[in-house]
Amino acid sequence: MKSRFGLKIAIVAAVFLLCFWRVIGFSPSLDAVKQNLSDNIALGLDLKGGTHLILQVQVQDALKSEADQTIDRLRTRLARADISYTGIRRNDPGSVEDADSIEIQLEGTPTDRVSDVRAILDEEAPSWLSASSGSSSFALTLRPSELLRLKAETLQQSMSTIENRINGLGLTEPVIQQHGRAEAEHEILVQLPGVSDPARVMNLLQMSAQLEIAKEIGGPYGSPEAARSQNNGILPANSELAHYTDRGRNEWYLLERNPIVTGRDLRGATAGRDTQNPGAWQVSFSLSRQAGQRFGIFTAANIGQNLAVVLDNRIQSVASIESRIESEGVINNIDSQTEALDLALVLRAGALPASVVYLEERTVGASLGADSIRQGVRSAMYGVAIIVLMMLVYYKSAGINANVALFFNLLILLAVLSAFGFTLTLPGIAGIILTIGMAVDANVLIFERIREELCEGKAVVAALNAGFGKAFLTIIDTNLTTIIAAAFLFLFGRGPVRGFAVTLAIGLLANLFTSVFVSRLIFDLTLWRKQQVKEMSI
Amino acid sequence: MQLIGQTNIDFLGRRNIFIGLSLVLLLAGAASAVIHGGLKFGIDFKGGTLVYAKFLDEPDPERIRAVLQGKGLSVATLQPFQDSADSHELKIDLDLAGEVVETSGKSQVIETLREIYPIAAGKLDFNNASSDALGQRLMASQALRDAGHSSQELAGAAEALVAWRDQAPRSGLVRDSSEFDAVPGVPEGVLAAVKQETELGAFHIGGVEVVGPKIGAELQWQAIKATLFALAGMLVYIAFRFEWIYGVAAVIAVFHDVFITIGFFSLFGREIELTVVAALLTLVGYSMNDTIVIFDRVRENRNAIRRSSLTELLNLSINQTLSRTVLTSGLTLVAVVCLFVFGGEVLRSFSFALVVGVLVGTYSSIFIASPVLLWGQGLLTARAPGARAGRRA
Questions:
Q1: A interface mutation test: which of B104, B224, B328, B354 has the most A CBs within 10 A?
Q2: How far is A521 from chain B (nearest CA, A)?
C-alpha cells in the first residue's frame, strides 16, 4: 500500500513541478514571476494587440502582362513577316475569379497566309492554345498547365516580396503564410504582433514598387487627349503615356514603352535628405554592374535628351541627360522621412508581380488588448473565487480536494499551451471556462456519488471506492465526448474555432488526470493513517 | 451542506409543458429574427468596418453619426458603452461599401472624429500617435539633437511613452500633460519636447476591423462545418457507448440549445460576432456533458433495476443527478455571469451567449433530451412489437 502511494505521489509531484516550472518558474521575486508568466504564455493578437491582414494577390495582373508581352512579340513578328491584321488585343479580366478567362484576339489576317500566321503563333506564343474561326481570326487562350504555373509563380513571388518588405521593417515575430483554405489559392495571411503603425505597413505592402527609367519622347501635354491630337490622333508605336502630378503639376508625357532600367536592375536604395530641395527627402538607388553599363552606353548616346523616372506608372521626375550616367539614380522631393524610408525599403525588397488588395484587416490596439486581458483576468478571478468558496462551503474539507484539482488542472493547461507554443486567444479563454466548468463537474459528480453511497449506509472507504468507481465512467464519457468534439473542431475549424478547440482538449485531458487521479490520491492520503474511519468531511 | 436532498419529482410527466415552453422560445426567436429582417450579424460575418474609439469625455454619438452620414457613409450602428464610470467608448460600425475591403471607411471615421475634436495645426496628437510617428517627431526636434540625444535613444523614449499611454489606467488616453512627469525612464528634456510638440487629443482609436464580404461568408461556413463535424463525432461516440437513439436525443437537445440561444440574440438585439461562435461551441460541449451525465445514470440504473419502464428510469436518474446538476450549473453560471458583468464590452456578446447557453443547456438535458429519448425509444418499440427493446432501453 505504501509503495503504491509512493509511486503515485512521485508522479503527481513530478507533473506538478514540471508544470510549475514551465509556467511560473522558481523565482522568489514577484516581478520575476510576472515576467515569466508573460514570457511563457504567448498571447494571440486579440489580446496582445497587433494587426491581422488577409491579402489577395490579383493574379490576373500577371496574366495580363504575360498577354501584353505576347502581343508585343506577335506584333513585331507579324510586321516583319509583312502580314497585315485589323486588330490584336486581349480581354480584361477584372478579378481573381475571372483570371482564367484571359484571351488574346487576333483579327483580320489575310486568308491566303493562314499557315504563316499559324507558324508565327506556334513560335512566338508557345504557351498559348490558338483556335481559329474562319481563317482570318484567331483566339489564343493560355494552356492550363501554363495558367497554373504563372499563377503559382505570381503568388510565390508576391509572398517573398511581402516577406522581404516586412523583414525590412524589422517587426518581431511576423507570420506570413498562404491563407489556409483550399479555394483561397491566392490569399496571403499576414500577422504583425505589436505593430506600431498599421496604416503605414498596409500602405507599404500594397505598393507595387515598379520602378522604371524611360526615355521621354514627347510632352508635356495637358491631357491624354491633347497628347493624341498633337500626334495626329494616334500615339506613336512603342510609346505610352504617363502622368506627372508632383507638386501641383498635372502633366502627361509620352515615354518609350521599353524602359532602359527597371526595378530588377537595382542593387540598393537608401533614403536621405534631399540635396536640392531643403526640408525634403530623397531616395538614391544604385544599379547593378550590368545595368550600369547598359545605362552608361544609353546616356552617353542620348545627351541632351530627357529621361523620366517612373514609379508605379506615375512619373517622379523628368530631367535631361547632361553627361554619361553609370550607376546612380535619385528620386527626390519626397515629403517625409517615413515616406522616403518606405520607398527605399520597397525598392530594395523588389516589386510585386501583381497588385494586392486587402480582404480583411483587424487591428487591435495595445490599449484595447490590455483592457481585454485585464477585464478577462479580473472576471475569471471573481468566478474562480466564488467557485472555490462554494466548494469549500458545500463539501467542507473534500472541497479542498476539488479546489486543488481545479488549480492543478489550470496549471497543466497553461504549461501544455506554453510547451507547444500555442497562443492564448479570447476564444481560448472560452475553452478554459468550459474546462473549469467540467473540472468542477467531475468533482461534483464524484462527491455527490460518495454522499449517495454514504447515505445508503456504506462505510467510508467503501463509499469512497464506490463513488470514484461509478463516477469514473460518467467522467470518462463526458470528457471523451467533448474531447472528440474538440478534435473535430481542431481538424476542420480555423482561427478562433481552433484556438477554442486546443485549450478545451488540453484542459479536458488534464481534467481526467486531476479529478480521477490527483483528487483520489488526496482522499486516500487523508484516510491512510486512520485505522477506522467513521466519518468523512464531504 | 446540502441544497437538494433526495427528490422524487415527475419530470417527464410534465414534459408537454416544457416542450411547449421550448417551442414558444424557439418561435419567439424565429419571429423576432423575421421581424428584424434576419439575424443581426457582426462585421465578422456580414463584412464592413468597425472602429472602437475611446473618449476623454462623453461623446455625442448623434453628431458623429450626422457627420458620417453627411459624407455618404452608411452607419449601421453607433453604440456608446462604458466599461467603468469614467470611461467613454464608442463602437462605430459601417456597412460594407463594395466588393473589396474599403479601407477608406476607416480613415473617414478617423477623419470625422478629427474634425469634431480638432487639435492645433502642426502638433502631433499624442493620444493617437504611433511610437514611430512620435519617434520621428522627436528626432526632427533641433533642440533634442543639440542636447545630444541619439536617434536610438529618442525612438526608445517614444516607445516607452506610447506603451505607458496604452497601459491601465490610461488605456490609451492621457488627459493632462502633467501626467507625463510620472513616466519612468524618459529623460526630462524629452518630456519637455513631447509637451511642446504634441497635444492631447480627445479620443483614442482602440481597434479597427475591416472585413470583406468573401471572408465573412467563408468564416460562417467554416464555423458551421466544423460544428457539424464535431456533433457527428459526438453522436458516433454516444451511439457506441450507449445506443444510437441516445446520441440522437442528445444531439437534438444541442440543436435546441443553439437555436434558442441564437433566438435570444435576436430578441435582445445583439449582434452575432465571431467570438459568439466560440461561445456556442462551449454551449454545445456543456449541454452534451449535462445530457450524458443523466444518460449515464440511466444506463447504470437500467442494469440494476431491470423491471422498470424507461419513463421511471429517466425520472429516477434525473432525480438522482439533480443535486449535481444544480450545483454544477450553478457554479458554471456564476463563472459566466462574472464574465458578463466584469468582462468588458469586447467580451459582452460572447459572455451573453454563455449565460444563455448554460441556462438553456441545463434545462434541455432534463426537459428536452430525456423526452426525446423516450419518444424515440417509443417509436422504435412500436415499429418492432414484442422486441425486448422497450424494457432494455
A1: B328
A2: 22
From A102, A126, A148, the end of a domain falls on: A148
Number of domains in chain A: 3
Shared-domain flag, residues B63 and B98:
yes
Asked if A187 contacts A207 with a C-beta cutoff of 8 angstroms, the reply is: no
- Choose among A196, A394, A477: nearest Cβ to B327: A394
* Distance from C-alpha of A154 to C-alpha of A158, rounded to nearest angstrom: 6
Question: Chain B, 5-24: which have a CB under 8 Å from a chain A CB?
Answer: 6
Same domain, A506 and A374: yes
Stretch (H or E) spanning A360 = strand A356-364
**A97 shares its domain with A32:** no
Task: Determine, yes or no, domain membership for B358.
Answer: yes
Closest-CA residue of B relative to A55 is B101
Domain boundary among B159, B188, B210: B210
Question: Closest-CA residue in chain B for A477?
Answer: B292
Residue A537 belongs to some domain of the structure = no
Decide the pairing of beta strands A175-178 and A187-193: antiparallel
B110 shares its domain with B251: no
CB contact under 8 A, A361 and B222: no
Of A197, A455, A470, the CB nearest to B300: A470
Provide the domain limits for residue A250. Answer: 211-350
Q: What pLDDT was estimated at residue B102?
A: 58
| Pick from A374, A387, A430: CB nearest B331 | A387
The x, y and z cell numbers of residue A372, run together, are 481585454
Residues A236 and A103 in one domain: no
Listing DSSP states for B356-375 in one string gives: HHHHHHHHHIIIIIHHHHHH
Chain A touched by B296 (CB under 8 Å): yes
Radius of gyration of the CA atoms of chain B, in A:
29
Residues A369, B35: Cα–Cα separation, whole Å: 36
Judge if B69 and B194 occupy the same domain: yes
Verify whether the Cβ–Cβ distance A427 to B204 is below 8 Å: no
pLDDT in tens, A167-194: 888 777 888 888 765 555 688 989 988 8
Digit-coded pLDDT (tens) for B371-384: 999 999 888 888 76
Q: Check whether residue B112 and residue B261 sit in a common domain.
A: no
Q: Do B281 and A489 touch (CB under 8 A)?
A: yes
ipTM: 0.81
Domain range spanning residue B149?
46-210
- Within-domain flag for A335: yes
Residues B168 and B225 in one domain: no
Inter-chain residue contact B331 with A370, CB threshold 8 Å: no
**CA atoms of B269 and A439, how far apart (whole Å):** 33
- Per-residue b or e along B132-146, where b marks 16 or more CB atoms closer than 10 Å to that residue's CB: bbbbbbbbebeebee
Q: How many CB atoms lie within 10 A of CB A386?
A: 15
